[in-house]
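F.,

This is the one I mentioned.
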């Protein structure tokens, strides 16, 4: 009997911890860019980029979204507590893809693309932190006198976490100059 119980404990632990796991999906998509030998790489990317916001042209962009669900258990007296959560992070990174160009342009582009991708992965990591913190906040939501109140408070907590991370993302772009301080800069 002890052996069976000991063998089941790791499985029980896995089952209990699985309810807190964040599911993640990251995709990369590309827009094509053609550059002629001797042409300005920066100008060519600016012309090809579909990423335009508030009158600005960007060479890359990361869009992430956190979705959460939770299930609760209602007691006979109406008190309610969260039993299970499911939090999902979906993200898409949009980057340029070079066609044409001479060897020097392709080399400069590859260096630039590496720094650009690393900057965009920083945005993704902010999304990962948001998803993990939202899931933890939902699981830590205390019991409430009613399920309606629990639902309102849990969503309020999750949205507050989301807003903090959206501000963190804006600050990240300001502090890095949208990746310039990380090497995502073309000088021509």
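My design for it:
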């Amino acid at each position: 009997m002890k052996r069976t119980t000991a063998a089941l404990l790791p499985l029980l632990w896995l089952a209990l911890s699985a309810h807190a796991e964040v599911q993640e999906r990251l995709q990369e998509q590309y827009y094509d860019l053609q550059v002629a030998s001797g042409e300005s790489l920066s100008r060519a990317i600016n012309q090809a980029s579909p990423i335009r916001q508030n009158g600005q042209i960007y060479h890359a962009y990361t869009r992430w979204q956190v979705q959460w669900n939770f299930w609760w258990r209602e007691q006979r007296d109406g008190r309610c507590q969260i039993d299970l959560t499911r939090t999902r992070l979906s993200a898409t990174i949009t980057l340029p893809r070079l066609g044409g160009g001479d060897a020097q342009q392709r080399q400069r582009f590859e260096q630039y693309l590496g720094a650009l991708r690393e900057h965009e992965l920083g945005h993704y990591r902010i999304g990962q932190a948001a998803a993990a913190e939202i899931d933890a906040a939902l699981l830590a939501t205390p019991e409430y006198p009613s399920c309606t109140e629990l639902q309102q408070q849990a969503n309020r907590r999750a949205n507050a976490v989301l807003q903090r991370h959206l501000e963190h993302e804006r600050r990240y772009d300001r502090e890095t100059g949208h990746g310039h301080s990380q090497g995502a800069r073309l000088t021509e």
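Residues 1-18 have pLDDT under 50 and may be disordered.

Talk soon.
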